[in-house]
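stage 2 :: seqdesign
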């Protein structure tokens, strides 16, 4: 059985919706999604570091559409692990765990890896929205499109734009 590594933020959890929500609440600015294409999170939103260190930021993030259904099937077909950086933002550790338990209850605690660096992770396939995590990975890499990577050439990484495309790529019977 192949080992599949799936990122949380920007792949399962819609952190961009959270950034927009927090920015609107804080400053009244309501950026349209197209206005931030090609910008890193810290460039697109002024107070990203404050937002991600605010209680509730990760816990209240919306689920990216289609992810639950596809993840349930992937869990049957792969040795599946959620690997998410959580040490940089200490509040996120518990909130990410709670969020995953709430939205993906079919995953066991043994499938959740909340870490500092993903460089120590190994597997056959990695699905992530950041090049910094994919570039060092030795297996097959899949780039999940988010505004910060939308204009970038995916290079050796295969790009998917949504969970339907993830299913078509990783679940041939889909």
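stage 2 :: out
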């Amino acid at each position: 059985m192949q080992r599949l590594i799936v990122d949380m933020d920007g792949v399962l959890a819609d952190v961009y919706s959270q950034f927009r929500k927090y920015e609107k609440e804080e400053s009244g600015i309501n950026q349209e999604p197209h206005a931030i294409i090609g910008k890193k999170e810290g460039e697109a939103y002024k107070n990203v570091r404050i937002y991600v260190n605010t209680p509730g930021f990760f816990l209240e993030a919306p689920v990216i559409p289609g992810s639950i259904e596809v993840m349930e099937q992937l869990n049957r077909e792969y040795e599946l692990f959620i690997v998410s950086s959580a040490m940089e933002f200490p509040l996120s550790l518990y909130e990410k765990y709670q969020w995953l338990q709430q939205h993906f209850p079919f995953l066991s605690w043994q499938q959740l890896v909340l870490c500092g660096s993903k460089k120590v992770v190994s597997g056959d396939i990695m699905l992530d929205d950041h090049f910094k995590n994919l570039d060092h990975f030795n297996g097959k890499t899949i780039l999940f499109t988010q505004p910060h990577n939308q204009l970038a050439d995916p290079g050796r990484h295969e790009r998917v734009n949504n969970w339907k495309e993830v299913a078509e790529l990783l679940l041939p019977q889909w």
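stage 3 :: structure notes
- Helices lie at 15-27, 41-44, 48-52, 67-77, 90-103, 131-134, 163-170.
- The chain has a mean pLDDT of 95.
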